[in-house]
Write a structure and sequence with these properties.
By secondary structure, this protein is of the alpha+beta class. The chain contains two helices and three strands. This is DUF4177 domain-containing protein.
Length: about 60
């Protein structure tokens, strides 16, 4: 299973990195693993996470 999250406007690389790190750590606690990341022209970040389906079923 995949999940996509958009992080807010971050005009500077350091603030974007902080947002990506915070969201990645939050999602990892829920069993999600960051697999892709890109930045839009509007300085927002798109993060794609993956989690095995067995984790969703509680196996």
């Amino acid at each position: 299973m995949y999940k996509t999250v958009v992080v807010g406007y971050a005009p500077h690389a350091a603030s974007m990195a902080q947002q990506v790190e915070a969201k990645s750590n939050e999602m990892e606690l829920q069993g999600w693993r960051l697999v892709s990341f890109s930045v839009t022209n509007s300085a927002k970040g798109i993060l794609v996470f993956h989690r095995d389906e067995s984790a969703d079923r509680g196996e």
